Amino acid sequence: MQKDKLFGINTVMEALRSDRPVQRLLIVEQRKADRDVLEIVRLARAKGIEVRTTTRETLNHEAPNVAHQGVIAIASARHYATIDDVLKIPARKGQSALFLILDGIEDPRNLGAILRSAEAAAVHAVIIPERRAAGLTETVAKASAGALEYVPVVKVVNIVNTLEELKKNGIWITGAEASGKTVYWDIDLVRPTGLVLGGEDKGVRRLVKAHCDSLVSLPLMGQISSLNVSVAAGVLLYEVLRQRRKNEKAQNSGP
User: Fold this and answer.
1) 37 partner at 20 to 30 Å CA-CA among 6, 103, 111, 221?
2) Are residues 24 and 92 both part of a single domain?
């Protein structure tokens, strides 16, 4: 099986806490007594994972030009989920569906940051296209700060076909677009929702926009014309949480 290298304290810690199969741990000699590193070693040994101490030069060779923080885990490659897999998750959790569809995010740091927000907002899955988009690289894992271990990611051949499949399963598709006539807080996000975000340069593609049920915009009160896509994702996801929490409180309070 192909192997991945996971870098950094948070990324390795969350891999060990999750069900990700880790085969070997490399720790730089100078950091082996650090509190966070000691916790990593404890988790690894509890799972029977081999732990090696080594030199910083060795880790730099294993991870050139990467801020590894003195810790590298050798793990089995992260597998993509399938649409069939993730469509079952909301019902299993007794929740209204929340999916994030990324139409061509090319910067792996943006993808990692979006995954971090998605995990914090309890997104059921993130969907990415097979072509012209960042995949699940080491940079993405690092930028996600461990969130990649918990958020299912689906890679699809055709985003438009996937949107139609989500719709058939009762999910309303909302695209984030500067030209959207509705402000994002005025759309119903309590219902089963798929949020579509476009790529860094071109936004949501025309054909993808045509298959959204609605398009929403984020008000910009300053001089710049757009937000970073990972920031926009965070804003939208927490509006979903706000609306759903408000709806839960209203239901629980009764007439």
Assistant:
1) 111
2) no
